[in-house]
Structures are given as C-alpha cells and as structure tokens.
Predict the 3D structure of the following.
Amino acid sequence: MLTGVKTEPSAEASAKLRGEPSPEAWAAFHHQFRDCFARRESWAQLFRYWRERCGKGVRTEGSVADPKGAGSDRARQRFLSDAAWDEEKLLARFHGQVRVALGDREAALVFLEAGFAKKGEESAGTERQSYDSSGRVRNGQVGIFAVYVSRHGAIPVAARLYVPDVWCGEDRRVKRDKCRFPADFGYRTKTAIILEMLAQIREAGMLPFRYILVAGLPESARGLIQAAGAPPGFTYFLPAPRDMAVWITKEAVWKRRARHWWVWHYRQKYVRIVKRIPAPLYTWAYARRIRDCFWHRPPGSGAEVEQGGGEFTHKRVTVSIGAGPKKIIWLFARRTKGKKPAYTCHISNAPPPVRLATFVRLSASGEAARRSLQEAKDVSGLGRYAVRTYPGWHHHVLACMLAHFLLAHGLQDPDESQPPMR
C-alpha cells in the first residue's frame, strides 16, 4: 500500500524549476494521454496520482471529478498494477514533447542507475545490493534510467528495473508470480538492459541524439562498445573498461658480447642492441605518462565548474579490450589538482577531427543527467512509492517522469507534421 509520505516539493528543489504550471496546463497535458488508457477511470487516476506525487501544485480545475473512493490506497495499487496502459503510445507522446522542448541533433543519451531503499523482500527486484557511488551494500531496488541531455536541458525519458539473478531461480517462482513478472522473464545484465532500451529508443525515432554515454555503471563497457559503434551516425563516450590496455612503442635495450671471443678479450667491447617493441599499459598509467604541456583547462567552460576544476586532454591511441583486436580510438582523460591527482579516463569512437571542448561537454552531460534524476526524485516523488509489482514499478516511474517534464519544461505544442526521425 502507498505510504502517506509528504509529497510537496522542497523550496530548494522548486527553485530549480521554471515555474508552477497553471491548472489549464496540467489539464491540457493530461488530455494528451486520454487514448493511452483503456478506461476513463484509469486516465483520471493518472491526474490524481500526479497531484499526490507533486503536492498542492496540481489543482483539479478543468479536470475530471473525483469519484468516491478514487483516492484510496487500493485504487492507487489497482491503477499502477492492474490498469491497462498503452505504454508504447504514451512514451511516443512523451518523447514528442521532449523533442519539441529539448530536441537537438547534437544531444546525448545518458544511461545511469539509481537506487531506491526498500524494507523487506516482497517488492519486485528487492535484494541486498550496491546501488550508489559509495559502494555500500544495502537492501533496495535498482533502476536503469535513460536521460536525454541537450544544450536546452536534461530530462529522464525511459527506465527499466534491474532484477538480480537470485530472483530468476526456481526458489523465487512464487515471488515472481506474486509480483506479476512476465512469464518469459529471465535474468538480464545491466549492459543487456541498456542495449534493449537503446534499441527501442532508436527504433521509435522520436528523439534526435548523436552521443551515447554511460555514467557511473561499474560493468564492463565491452558489449556497449560493440553495439554502439555499429550504427552509423552515433558516437559513444564510455568509461574505459578495466581490462583495456593502451599500446605504446617501447625501446628494449640490452648488451651482449661480441661474436668473436678475441675481440671481447682484447678490447673489452659489448654490442648494444636497441629494439622497438609494442607494450601494453593500463589507462591510468598511460595518462600519468602524458606530459604537462598536453593538459589543458578550457577557459569559461561550464563543465570545468561542474567537474570541480581539473585539467583535460585527449589523444588518439591504439587500445585492446581483453583478448579483442586492437583498434584506434580517442582516449579522453581528466586529472584533478594537487600533488596526487586522480585520473578519470573515457574512450570514444568519434572521428579524428574532434575538439577537446566536445569531450569536455560530454563529460559534463553525465553530471547533468544525475542532477535531473535527483531533481525528479525530489520534486515529482520518483523515489517515494510503495508498489510491489513489476509492472507497477514501471508505471509509477513513467507517471513521475511525465510530471517532472511538465514541472521542469512546461507544456509544449508538438508539431504533428514532423515524422519520426529514423
């Protein structure tokens, strides 16, 4: 059952938004999704759910009337878990609004994870796991989010619940049925979930973007590199995998005696041999070998402030991931200030004529995505829920993303004449 947590946004969180939408804007935005629900009661419940999540800012003027018992906990659970949602059509309408407000062909699609603390073990996907940057193992759920980031702003546009592998065993079949998992559900890694979300967004063709980013995910980026590098016109910007090696040219020098013993005996000479051989280095070790003259601090860059200062550089290098073949890609590195700087490395398949400022802007996109997701938690109630079913979690997140978009960017007038972007 839904808990009675205070859902009014804080003053600090509300100050980040563009302003309070009018009752007419809420009603017009709500009316766009009328044909996404099979029943009128479910469509009306969406508006009431927004009001509960966002506080007193959502007023009912110009909306449907509340029937008796519509605001009960049982009605909310039925709306989230049992009501028929046309999620594909609803996402298409939502992405159309995002396209009009934030659309940019140079935008980035950032994938990151977010954790939600939960008590007990009955909710879908709840397990003791690490779901934040601190690395602490706590009980909760983990969601994989896709955030659309452009020069106009950032907004979460898609989400999937990550289910640990222990939930896919036969001993959890009863729990899976109780949480209404799909019949053909199987374990999927975070990388597989990201690839599935990316394929669905590209297939829909509503959101224009060029760059694919991953922020804060500890998994290896090998599968993402292979998948994101295949589609033409897309550029990935991913954290360097742990098993990636940068190949450099190393001089191997050693000495040996002359071939004739009498030359060595009389002249005491050695033959000096110098040979150039390829040698692998870890990314952080290679970044430490870069000379100071190649590190730059972009003047007037907003990313520099967001990243907490530091210096940046990018080089065209030859790398290999695990036992894979060697390839030539870009290595972007950042180091902090101080006597013992910390190094952060990313890789990209961008074409050779690319500026350092482009990579600096992409590194700041990850921070913008995290702020937008945290803002959705604070303002639209994304992290305040008590639904246990698998479809209920996705419906709750989708409803909160819709409300957060209206609060952050206002009602847009979509151009119906624009076809999807393939």
In short: Residues 68 and 75 are 11 Å apart (CA to CA). The first helix runs from residue 11 to 15. Confidence is low (pLDDT under 50) at residues 1-17, 60-70, 301-305.
